[in-house]
Write a structure and sequence with these properties.
It is built from 7 helices and 21 strands. The strands form 4 sheets. The protein has a 6-stranded antiparallel beta barrel. It is elongated and about 125 Å long.
């Protein structure tokens, strides 16, 4: 019986197959090598950047650098903060440890190099009032109120000084809710002078009712902050982390914590500029009492409008009297500048002079019309 054997592969054939495979591998390797060898990486074809860390990932070095920068800005601004009293103290400075209650200590901030100090009217008194001021270096001055506005609770006081360091003014129209702010002031008295508190912008365009001595008044378009504002802080600056003043602290809600208010700085920028350059300012007026939509609900819940300023009263024999303007008219714009808040109107009027003419676009029911008015002197 014949045994069965498996078929053997011809040795020559095996060698040939192996040789072909090796040749193909060598050709493939040579092709890959020569292809990638000729590829050049040009620097201009790509960009690199560091990934910004989240607050939780921030390095110690970055934190310290940021903190130092903010601290420097705040320290620089505090040098421009002054103490203000309506009464003269017998000592060398109003910022002394005695008689703080009698002195009625408040705060102000230097806003020009030639001695103008911005504060609250309830701190300095009204126009032509006298008050006493102590600078950061301890120098004392007698100040005369050059300008004040009861509705805004703001005033400018002049002292006989030159070449003063003064605060940088920011743009209050650009602020956003949630941004960090710092309040600087002289709460309580000497022991806590130039106290800095921090917080955020809690809201914009707030309106509040003030009740004092059986009188009611309304303040509108205020900046609300939770930075602590205590008695004595009135008139002090509300600043951003870069040291720019965006508001003047004016009042706090006493029945709740963390609710304070500041008047936006943009409202008085043009007035400050006039006093700095010319040493004087004539305030123009339309001759009306008006309210924006934030205040109207306090006065009459039946009145509703989306845009503009509601005329509540026209001053007898004032600029607007006998021009065709009427009570209950809504001013939509002035010289084509749209109005939404009372500060919009104030800021524009403050840039004008008595005798200038303005054109109001008003809504009276369903009718819109234009009325020209020659501004008077307030």
């Amino acid at each position: 019986m014949k045994s069965k054997r498996g078929k053997r592969t011809d040795p020559k054939k095996r060698i040939l197959i192996i040789a072909i495979i090796l040749i193909l591998l060598w050709i493939s390797a040579f092709y890959i090598y020569t292809t990638y060898k000729n590829i050049e990486i040009e620097p201009s074809t790509y960009e690199t950047s560091r990934v910004l860390s989240t607050p939780n990932e921030q390095t110690v070095e970055n934190t310290e650098e940021k903190s130092k920068t903010i601290s420097d800005m705040i320290e620089e601004t505090t040098k421009n903060v002054v103490g203000i009293s309506k009464l003269r103290n017998t000592g060398n400075s109003i910022l002394t440890s005695s008689n703080e209650a009698e002195l009625g200590l408040g705060t102000g901030v230097i806003v020009t190099d030639n001695g103008y100090i911005l504060s609250n009217e309830h701190v300095t008194g009204s126009k032509y009032s006298k008050c006493y001021i102590t600078l950061e270096n301890g120098q004392n001055y007698e100040g005369i109120v050059a300008w004040s506005d009861t509705d805004l609770d703001l005033s400018l006081t002049k002292i006989a000084a030159k070449n003063l360091s003064y605060a940088k003014l920011g743009d209050s129209s650009q602020i956003r809710v949630g941004e960090t702010v710092y309040a600087i002031g002289n709460p309580i008295g000497f022991e806590f002078r130039r106290t800095v508190t921090s917080g955020i912008i809690s809201a914009k365009n707030r309106s509040i009712k003030i009740e004092e001595e059986n009188n009611e008044a309304y303040m509108s378009d205020l900046i609300q902050t939770d930075a602590t504002i205590n008695p004595g802080n009135s008139g002090g600056p509300l600043i951003t982390p870069n040291g720019e003043v965006i508001g003047i602290n004016t009042v706090k809600i006493t029945t709740a914590e963390g609710i304070g208010f500041a008047v936006p700085i943009n409202t008085v920028k043009s007035i400050i500029e006039n006093y700095q350059k010319q040493g004087s300012y004539e305030q123009a007026t339309i001759g009306i009492y008006a309210y924006d939509k934030e205040v109207i609900p306090y006065l009459n819940s039946n009145i509703s409008f989306e845009q503009g300023i509601y005329i509540a009263q026209i001053t007898p024999n004032g600029p607007a009297d006998k021009t065709g303007l009427q009570e209950k008219d809504i001013i939509l714009s002035i010289d084509e500048k749209q109005l939404n808040t009372m500060n919009d109107l104030r800021e524009y009027i403050y840039t004008k002079k008595p005798g200038d003419q303005v054109t109001l676009k008003i809504a009276r029911g369903k009718i819109n019309k234009e009325i020209s008015i020659t501004l008077g002197k307030k």
